[in-house]
From TrEMBL:
This is IS6 family transposase. PROSITE patterns: INTEGRASE. Pfam families: DDE_Tnp_IS240 (PF13610). Residues 73-236 form the Integrase catalytic domain. The lineage of its organism: Bacteria, Bacillati, Cyanobacteriota, Cyanophyceae, Gloeobacterales. InterPro entries: DDE_dom, Integrase_cat-core, IS_Transposase, RNaseH-like_sf, Transpos_IS6.
Length: 242
């Protein structure tokens, strides 16, 4: 088995009525481009394959988290200058908060969807980012004036989860890079007009973020703009590439 393949293909695609290649293609299209499930259904229908949009939805729910999980081991190391922020995502008619962070070169560090915007949520997010193997321990974290961030940082330092010399900068313009990066995720959420549940939203967003990291060239030996190499990498994760 290819060293990039963390999954068992027969297990992942067991009982599916369509070929794994078609399933992965539909999931990849939906997660990379601002398309609705019905638009993906139409694109597949043009190729003479009748797949209902609800089936594509189920595929995304099943395989988007697997894409996120699979690509983690292949991410390039990030640097120690972090820029963190949260953006709004509508879930079941209510606004939830997607915490996101990038380094000074625009590489995604991590992300977390929460129902609340408080110190507890910020702390959960930073703990998740600090545990990610591709991330370096931050030298500085740039955030906005949200009072939740200092509290979260103090707690993490007290728990020795974050070094004492890590600086927190609450200067709005310093996090412009992460605000710009939000757009790549927000444009993908618009065609769906919101999510119907927090679990559904989280599973889908994991796929959006993973595809965004692949698109930005964060995968080792897979460069930004190398579309065919990116496609082959994704297929290899699911055991489809030779």
């Amino acid at each position: 088995m290819d060293e990039r393949t963390p999954f068992s293909q027969p297990l992942l695609f067991k009982w599916r009525h369509f070929q794994p290649e078609l399933i992965v293609m539909c999931v990849r299209w939906y997660l990379r481009y601002p398309l609705s499930y019905r638009q993906v259904e139409e694109l597949v229908a043009e190729r003479g394959l009748p797949v209902d949009h609800t089936t594509i939805y189920r595929w995304v729910q099943d395989y988007a988290p697997e894409l996120d999980k699979g690509c983690r081991a292949h991410l390039r190391p990030t640097n120690d200058s972090w820029k963190a922020d949260e953006t709004h995502i509508k879930v079941k008619g209510r606004w939830c908060y997607l915490y996101r962070a990038v380094d000074s070169e625009g590489n995604t560090l991590d992300f977390l969807l929460t129902a609340k915007r408080d110190a507890k949520a910020a702390k959960r997010f930073f703990r998740k980012a600090l545990k990610a193997k591709h991330n370096r321990t931050p030298r500085v974290i740039n955030v906005d004036k949200n009072p939740a961030y200092p509290k979260a940082m103090d707690d993490l330092k007290a728990e020795e989860f974050l070094p004492e010399n890590c600086a927190l900068r609450q200067v709005k313009y310093l996090k412009n890079l992460v605000e710009q990066d939000h757009r790549s995720i927000k444009r993908l959420t618009r065609p769906g007009l919101g999510f119907q549940g927090l679990r559904t939203a989280w599973r889908t967003i994991r796929g959006y973020e993973a595809m965004n990291m692949i698109r930005k060239g964060q995968i080792k030996n897979v460069e930004q703009g190398a579309i065919q190499s990116q496609v082959k990498f994704i297929e290899s994760l699911f055991g489809l590439a030779a």
